[in-house]
Backbone:
DNA sequence: GTGAAAGCGCTAACAA
DNA sequence: TTGTTAGCGCTTTCAC
């Protein structure tokens, strides 16, 4: 609404001075009389000045837009990231451009498109994507051409951070470890995991084996679920099961409930992701919730910090266990 | 990348001519020599010209951004809308600014913020929100001040469309009607519905009563679920149950399966929304899927059409039944 | 310490 | 039918 010129008029100085005072960038390095600075800030506050990002970036030949590449999964985790990004970006007056996919080819499309649009930064969350070879080169080129990048990742990948690239880590291994702890506390005697080879599985195994117990590891897939079900029915002691997603857990949950073997009694069951509706099963599913809202929020903050030459302090976010009836 | 000036240089004419040829707005009303027009289009194509929305809107004192107000529900339906909007907006080079909530106060916040940002249009999906009084006035003011609006709605509300306001309708009543049809085809003898007073419920009732049958209607809430469960267990004939959300349906599903009364046998069960994981229950849940991706996509298309003075042909989108094992 | 002025890419009024 | 020009809001030299 109010422009720099309005603020300048009210503060009784020129637009350039107002610009220098109000820009986050370099605002320290410019020599402005303290009195002027105060007058300007006061005027800006009074008028409710909000910078016009559009004009700001036009100058740099860039567009005030953040591109976000997210997996095209249907579940609400992705929505959490969307919400986190949106909240942080909205506050700062930056709009977003989302692209949903998980294939390498489409990541390339996203990057090419992004480069063509001259936007000012991207956020990438692609846990299933190898960020090597072609993909890595695209990212490097983008940064070299003046772009900024924040990676949302689920483990420490060998990805170099610098003043144009940062990352937000959600500690997936720790999530698996939490599940292990919970099952150990429930005094289970046998332990099972159904999961692909990913950090959360390693964390679980580490937790259980660290307590001197053994784990039987099954892969994803309906056949494996079937096998697991049979093993559980043939086993007479208390069993602890960790599934690497609520989806897998629900399959097993349904099967067990169907034969009257309610999860939470002899068989303890923990899922992962705390997907929508997992709380409404009966018995309700215990699960691990990843802080994806926070990671989206932080990713945008990091990006803005980099854009405006402010420091970025990396953080590792921890999942939490949502205890319900099945474990 | 390429600017109008680049295209002009290649086509051998001035930037204004290029602008006139390439702008969607008024492109018909300007008189350009056909030969020039072709040369310009060719040059633009060769250079891969993409308009810089930022500069385009700076001229108008607006920001090339679309604000989107969506309910803050956790389920994947909202994600569908996000994806639909994102895909259409990305194509056109417009970034988005999402705001997630369903409270009137926050809708006001959203509108005030939106007006302050001078963005070029908003999309609102707020099925639970009364768009009357204060809210309605905010919307009117926004449109009067040069903004555009598209409403994504689930029924025909009394909301006036004009050249600055359009709507996309997802026919919720029809969704309920689909459920009724399915249960009638399954030769159920008794019919139940658990739902609040919304279009999908009316559609269901209409369908069942239209076939000369009666419906027992229960409200939302755990107590009602309990009652419904008891009624179903005491009823000896085939029963058809429609729940107004998968969430409600899953509660009942779990209860029934827990006592060995598998949904899909004597008791047919249909949910609504086809939420993530409903397919993975055993027996898998039959549900109604609302075309929310499409509605988000269309909403953005409509908005862009209005912005660029192009006609908008309203459409009513229909839900579809996803038939699985429970009905 | 401060201000004047140019210019980012585009559109629209005006001139030719 | 086409071209010239001013100006949108901002940043950044360059003068003072």
Residues:
């Amino acid at each position: 609404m109010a422009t720099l010129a309005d603020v300048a008029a009210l503060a009784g100085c020129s637009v350039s001075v107002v610009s220098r005072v109000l820009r986050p960038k370099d605002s320290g390095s410019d020599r402005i009389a303290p009195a002027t600075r105060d007058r300007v800030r006061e005027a800006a506050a009074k008028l409710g000045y909000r910078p016009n990002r559009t004009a700001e970036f036009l100058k740099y030949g860039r567009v005030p837009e953040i591109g976000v590449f997210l997996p095209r999964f249907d579940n609400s985790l992705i929505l959490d990231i969307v919400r986190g990004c949106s909240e942080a970006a909205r506050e700062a007056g930056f709009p977003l451009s989302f692209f949903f996919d998980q294939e390498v080819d489409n990541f390339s499309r996203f990057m090419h498109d992004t480069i063509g649009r001259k936007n000012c930064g991207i956020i990438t969350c692609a846990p299933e994507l190898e960020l090597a070879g072609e993909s890595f080169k695209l990212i490097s080129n983008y940064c070299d051409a003046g772009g900024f990048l924040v990676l949302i990742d689920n483990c420490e990948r060998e990805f170099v951070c610098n003043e144009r690239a940062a990352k937000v880590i959600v500690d997936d291994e720790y999530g698996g470890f939490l599940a292990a702890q919970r099952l150990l506390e429930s005094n289970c005697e046998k332990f099972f995991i159904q999961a692909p080879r990913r950090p959360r599985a390693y964390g679980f195994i580490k937790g259980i084996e660290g307590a001197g117990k053994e784990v039987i590891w099954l892969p994803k897939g309906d056949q494996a679920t079937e096998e697991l079900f049979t093993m559980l029915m043939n086993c007479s002691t208390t069993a602890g099961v960790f599934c690497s997603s609520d989806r897998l857990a629900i399959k097993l949950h349904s099967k067990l409930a169907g034969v009257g073997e309610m999860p939470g009694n002899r068989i303890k069951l923990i899922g992962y992701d705390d997907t929508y509706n997992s709380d409404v099963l009966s018995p309700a599913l215990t699960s691990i919730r990843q802080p994806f809202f926070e990671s989206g929020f932080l990713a945008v903050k990091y990006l803005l910090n980099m854009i405006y030459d402010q420091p970025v302090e990396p953080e590792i976010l921890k999942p939490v266990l949502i205890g319900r009836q099945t474990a």
